[in-house]
Amino acid sequence: MESEGGRSKEPLPRKPPSKAQQAVVFVLTFVCYAMFHVTRKALSSSKKKLELDWGMSVQFLGLLDTVFLACYSVGLLFAGHVIDRTNPKVLLVIGSFGTATTAALFGAARVFNIHSEVYFGAMWGLNGMFQSLGWPCCVSIMGNWVGKNSRGRTFGIWSSNLSLGNICGLLVGTLCFQIGADWEMVFLGPAAFMAVWAILVGVLLRAEPDRQHRPMATVSDLKTSLNDVHEGPHGDGPLPGSPMLLPGPPSLRKRQLQHISHEAAEPAKNLSWFQVWLLPGVIGYTLANVFLRFVSYAVFFWLPLYISEALNETVGIADLMSSLFDAGGAVGGVTLGLIADLVTRQGGSKSMVIMPSLLAAVPAFYVYSFVSNGVLAFNCVMTFVCGMLINGSYNILVSAIPAEIGALSQLRGNKSTTASVIGWSSCVGCFRDGVAHYDVLCCIQCVRV
Fold first, then answer.
1. How far apart are CA 189 and CA 167, in angstroms?
2. Residue 132 CB coordination number (10 Å)
3. Beta carbons within 10 angstroms of residue 322's beta carbon
4. What digits encode the pLDDT tens for the residues 268-322?
5. How far apart are CA 395 and CA 400, in angstroms?
6. How far apart are CA 305 and CA 308, in angstroms?
7. What sign does the CA torsion over 68, 69, 72, 77 have?
8. What is the pTM for the complete model shown?
């Protein structure tokens, strides 16, 4: 973007980060967002216990999912817009502490014998609001430290934190139930670890690399260079691209030069919600997110309960089997990320990698619907394959692609819009998920009848 006088208004370039700095950012944000999913998975892995031991109906458990997604979607709508205008590290710490606190308060209901549905709904809704800060902040920070040529590979590996968090959440539930602990420990344990990790993030994480310094002219330099800048070295008129100074005393011309030098470092502009929506690729990315997120989250919230009832397995075994879906997602994300980088280097688009994966997922789910009540080993294999195709595509769709859109927006002289793009698309997708979960509830009721 050019300003008057041909001077760039783009922000100062970032210094190339070291491998050690990138590694620290990678680990801190990876574990941080994995813990968001560990706490989120607590309700899913505890549903059977909450239904049997605490008297919660399946309808109310489904309502908790809907409340969570509704609050999560509203939070995303505003979070992305705010994150692109403030320090994402601060908001990430706030989101981490808020998520840990509300999860702990949810689990504390068992300790204090609280049965109020309003209490549970309020705690899980607030948990959704705080969770909405996690993903946009982490992707925005990671996008500042990852170069274009390695974005697919890096985000493919990094975004496996979703799947790893889900697996760890299920393992925590399985371990707690196997040793005889009650369901409150599934919430209290991850909440304590997340609070500790939030402190490490606040102390060690840097939101972006340092920026290079632009040398500024001294007063003596300005006095001696007024004529050179305005007229050129040989007095033959202004230099090409040099600013035109108004006639006047030297003090006025000096102030003009100072204004021009500061203009070059003028901050890049922020985009409105509507302008973010009109960025190339955002609408298509949002629509893909809507449909893919529904499939991913339907499995996320209900697969353990489905396996425990359809296969008559214990809660612990059902949690372990459903973790294969997340394990497949981790493998699929890394694989698709590597392929996406190769395609991008050849001038292609990352969507060229995601599309065939999603097309293959259709027959895979169709086959799974017929074998879920059959041989256990085949059920496990198909769960892994479906996770690889669905969650692998989803991991790339919600990380590498918005980071790329945000980077392209910066090249046009705007501030990064990565968090805003994530907020827009995920907000629409989560709202659709919240409504659609009643369809899942109806299906479960039909199966039980």
1. 15
2. 29
3. 26
4. 566 666 777 677 777 777 778 777 877 887 787 777 777 777 777 776 677 778 8
5. 8
6. 5
7. negative
8. 0.73
Do 29 and 143 form a contact (C-beta atoms < 8 A)? no
Q: Are 22 and 147 in contact (CB under 8 A)?
A: no
Q: What's the mean pLDDT when you consider all of the chain?
A: 77
Q: What is the token pair recorded at 422?
A: 């994530």
How long is the chain?
449
Mean pLDDT of 5-24: 67
Q: Are the beta carbons of 373 and 311 closer than 8 angstroms?
A: yes
- 208 vs 434, residue with greater confidence: 208
Do 7 and 260 form a contact (C-beta atoms < 8 A)? yes
- 269: helix, coil or strand? strand
pLDDT recorded at residue 261:
47
The residues with which 14 forms a beta bridge, in sequence order, are: 211
- What lies within 8 Å, CB to CB, of 359 at 6+ separation is none
With tokens 């449909």, the residue in question is 291
To the nearest 10 degrees (0 to 180), the angle between helices 184-204 and 19-53 is: 160
Percent pLDDT > 70 in the chain is 71
